[in-house]
User: Fold these one by one.
Assistant:
Number 1:
Amino acid sequence: MNEPASVEPLAGPDDVPAPRLDPAEPRPQPGYELPAAAQADSDPQLGTPDQHLEGRPQEVLPAPRVKPYAPIAALTLPHQPPIASVANLFSNPSGPMHFHQRLEVRTADLLETIPVSRAGVLSDASYVEPREWREVRQHAAKALADTPVVLLVAPRQHGATTFSLRLLAEETDEAVDLHVVEASWDRPLTSKLPAQANCAYVLDFQDPQRDRIDKTFLTGLRKHADTLGGIESRLVITLTPELWAPIAGQVPDGLAVVRLSAHPRAHLVARQHLMARGHASLLDYIDDPAVKEGVADWTPVRAVWLVDEMINLAAADARTAAEDGTTGEARENRLRPEVRELAKDWGTDLDIRFGAPGASGEGAIGTAHDVVRPLDLDDRCLSLALAVHRSGPAARIHADAERLAEILAGANAANGKKGAEDKETTDLREILGGVGLRTRFNSIGADVRYGQARFTSVNYGEALLNHVWGQYHPLHKRLIRWMIACGADSGGTAGDPAVRAILGVLAYHQDDSQLAEVRDQAASLGKASVATAVMVGAARDEHLGRRARQLLYVWAGHSTEETLRLVVAACRELIADQPGPAVTRLRRVADNPAGRALDADVLAAFKAVAADRRLTGGFAKAVAEWHAQAGDAGSPAANLGTLALMSVDEAGTQGRPWLLTGDRPAALGVAAALRRLLTDLDQYPGVLDEITRWLGADGGALHDQVMNVVHEAVSGRVGLMAVVQLVKELNKLRGPDGRGAGARLQDEIEADPDLGGITLETYPA
């Protein structure tokens, strides 16, 4: 076993999930390094930390470490895996071992493994080993030395995945590859568990329906442990206490059980992330007693959110200071209260505002921001509408609040629009007899200036949404419908308030059960783009990602065109940072008989993959594997993949096709792949355009080579009509000898004994 990496022990607990960046945006790649300036110990926006800490007693805390900021949990997302080896599978468990690397297995129980950088895990500057973890860490290390399979029981948001990866990185040999496993199954199957030599796997079991295990699974897992032990591999399975309870006491000998009961303290999580991100000057704010008290019961996930918000606040404050000339104490007085607001616990206020009428503050006049009183239904709807938008035109927010009230009442407010006749006949006397809109905004803790409404506290809106989601479970379906209806009419994007709000509550509560509801509600409202943006954001989230990718895989096999379009649209976005899983699901759509209408969309996505020089070679290997798997039956995905590769030119040339001059895999026979396309010209008419382009590439320098490939392709009897159409198209081009390319091909075909002396009657050259 390896010696632990030389990371100095730090006081206090700290396991840190990935930073709460915008979940709809691509994450940095493993090994990603910030610019040198961002790794400095001081923050140029706020000066050196000494200016803020001078003269104040400080507890002994970790010193900043200058290392790349790449939290371990962020490394578990499928960043740029080799496309041809997304799934590593073991077959024939009772006989000889065969190891396969495939992009997809034609089964609903898809297994995908995400490689994780050992160096990245060990060099994570934001990692702190909690004091509470050290004894558990020693116990786990001993268990891992005694048995290849360890069951780690830990509640969600306790850092079990990070703990497991750090354990494996430190306790396994450097020759062992680290992987996080994702399984798109309906129930766990030991026959699907990974077993590849010299690999260490982490598999999370968290879903109470899909991940529930029984004694039969444990018996199979014991046999699987023997297999892993024989090939120097290890497996850590994390389970929530809810999944563990039914099987406690049934674990057979040969499997180890470790409990991880404590989670890292939020205060030190936040400190370590600030230092790792080069913002040590903000440490004074996180050490503020009011902030420390506010985050005392927070999870590490929430602590990382606080770090992101603090950095954003500091950047905004720096811009303001540059504009108004504010310096020194004035900036301090402006920023510190805002950070305190971020860390404030809104639970008491929300319990009152969403409590029973008359429970507190009865009779209070709702004009002052500091008055907290129970809200009636209309004002609760108004609060939620403003929380979703964060800020915006007061009239628009009021309209969305009314729409929410209608949806909660069971009205069909799909588009939130009423007819002109309804508006004219509605009795409006109640409105004039009630409280004005500005006063109502004031009563819910918001300001209205120049027609724009926003809460006076920066994080109150998000806290409100999370409170309502956690307290009113029966409303989830209608809240989802309403938030989608609030989305922009022009389509959902990462910055759409509806998308942000949905992702925010689902990520905070780690509630992936509503993703299918998002799809269904968006479809009924005609806002598929909102569902696409939510699925993309969820796939990029370290907690929702597994379920989002599993759903996209399952949906890729559906028969409804609307669902398939959502999968394709989401996968096109994910190609940028999760190309392996994206291509797997695109292939499944392409090979789905119901997906024929989406061939053009899949082809466009495949072209985006093929055109990326980092992915071209891996994609070509995958396409070759698809052809081999399909055999004579053919595969639409393989054909579309070939067509996409035909559009790729060799770098630095004048259009020379990569398939003829590049480092294409030997297994991908160009002529054979071309033959499959020509056999079905009605489905793949674009192949004629690509052949024509090839013939003219680089001033016609490859004309003879291309003609030889085309001749070899048609020699496989692609069909008379296809050959006639091909000859006609090629006659539009002239070869180096001035003769029509189609006429040359026609002569070669008629003279080819393998074609039986076929005579073609085509248009003259």
Note: The first strand starts at residue 87 and ends at 91.
Number 2:
Amino acid sequence: MVPQLWLSLKSFVTAVIKRFLDNRCIENAAALTYTTLFAVVPLMTVTYSILSAVPSLQDVGDSIQNFIFESFVPSTGEMVQSYLNDFSKQARKLTSIGIAFLLVTSFLMLRTIDKALNNIWQVTHVRRGMSGFLLYWAILSLGPVLLSAGFLATSYLASLKLVSDTTAILGGEQWLLRLMPVCLSTLVLTLLYTAVPNRKVPVRHALVGAVFVAILVELAKVGFTLFITLSPTYHLIYGAFAAVPLFLLWVYLSWLMVLFGAVLVRSLDLYGKQSRGERPHPLISILLILKQLQEKFEQGQGLHYTDLQKRDLPVSLDDWECHTSRLMEMGLISKNDGGEWILAKDLRQISLFAFCEQLPWPMPQDEQLQNILITDEPNWLSDLVQRAQAVNSARLEALDCSLDQLLSK
């Protein structure tokens, strides 16, 4: 039991790391760091502007900013925070055109995050138009308000005599201060992993990924501080400006951890579907693609992966790319001028036996056939299941002898 569990865990971790690299998360983290460099001041300005519009929250902005830098940024963030404060104060004096530019910069950062996460979830049709605008606007407008409300609620609870006396007796004040960043990170990341991908994400998976990343950030913060203390190379090279490259390095590491958490959430979802049998046998998924190609061909149209997603067919983007490449090598499909896949051969000329002989997978076993879960199961799939079961039964009957019986003749 234990060795099997260890092998499953090892396989899962390997798959997560491979998916992290295949999705170009390292490059995406660098792109997000670059975007953050230009968007952090606009985001701070927008936050202050929104908070100033709410009378009860006008004085909370500085407190929230100090809490974020103290809790989520290593000790090098103090100088950067003063720079950003100066930039933000200057930005608040801009004209309406300048404010519009800041809003556009903030939207571009959110758009980059949107693309990076949807790429991990293999979503090719990201939010566009009004739906995307409303999501980004909700994040920019409601985010600061909710953050301020949570900060005020926490401060109020901490100020209550009963709570303060209890924490003083139990020595829980330090624990409360340590847990607040973890809880806040968990909440924000859970919302990020569930709301941004244009696909349904199980909340329990998002919560697991968020807790993992929140703890990882705290550990990384300690390690980063030790690195700066024990290796003063940046201070020797950059002097007083060493805080800037160190801050950018921390932002890059933070985005790496956030994207790794997203890959973890996506992998948990896929692992859950595979364990429940929701991911069909490769023969089923490649025939699903051929069926859609046949229908599109009869309509004089080509097929794109988004067509499968709209019908909620259980074919992942990885399987789509693998199967379309194989079908093209077999000479069954090709691309039209619009980049869509179309049939290149009459399917009436190809037998199921000849088709299966060219595939690298064996015929699905009976237990795999029983786990097929496709909405509105078509007649051709029922027919395939019956044929595959007949093949398995005939093969079992033909090979139903021991090796001793065979070799004794």
Note: The beta strands are 333-335, 341-343.
Number 3:
Amino acid sequence: MKSSMEHFDARDEMADFPEELNVKAILEKVKVFLVVKQLKEDSSPNLVIPNLYIGCLGTVLNKNKLYETQITHILSVCEMPIFPYQAEDFKSLLININDSVDQEIKSKFEMANEFIHSAIKNKQNILIHCFAGKSRSASFVIAYLIKYLQMTPLQALKLLQSKRRIAQPNMGFMKQLDAYHKELYRQPQIQKEQKQEDSSSVMKKVKLNQQDEHSGQFNVQQILNS
């Protein structure tokens, strides 16, 4: 005996849908809606160190927030055809790169660091952003911390994640950051100069020690801080 319930075939039902109803197009629109919603919710920059902020595309598009935070410089490290603002609004540098493990970025660090430092040394605020504020922008923040705060990549990442939890360069970027750190601090000439600086620092501490012993005022904390 045949069942009175008709057999349901999803493919048959889909065939009856109007041609203008494109499911893929609908899904793409939903995806765009969710992305826009996320960007709006994540539109405030995160302060990493004095004058240095990190954010996403939603941050850079929130012009009122940029003015409120007194941002004067913007480093964009993502795929953007043009910078969204006029030159008189902000000083900007655009580096078009993909968020891919195969993307080469190390050669861009020095150029980016010079731009970042041009703002920070004058106590001006700079925003570094990519699309999500997670991988590309994080990589360039870390590169700056490596060079100017003498941090290791992991130390810089830990500091950054304490300010922006989602920050995480992809594996390819982390390898390039490690190579950048080695280039800066492990070359023979750098090591030689570092040893000379360390030797000079030790001599200063010894002299200070001797002076304090003669005066009867030996101060351990002063030596540690010198």
Note: The chain has two domains: 40-186, 190-225.
Number 4:
Amino acid sequence: MAETEQKTKKPAAKKPVDLTKLSIEELFEGLNQTIQKMDDSSVSLEETFQLYELGMKAVKEAGSRIDEVEKKIRILGGEEDV
């Protein structure tokens, strides 16, 4: 019976990643890894939803960072509509 209980236990939750501390490149690499995990047929539906949520947070963070870089480029380029 202990063996059955052990099989049904969920894996230990990973420590949440602070997306704000990752570089844009690291965010995109993480997104690629998340997509690969979601494509794995052995991943449960619940885990797929968690991966989707993490991926969307990473997309939002990457978008914010890209917007910041774009603003800096516009300022350096002398554009006034920043």
Note: The chain has one domain: 23-82.
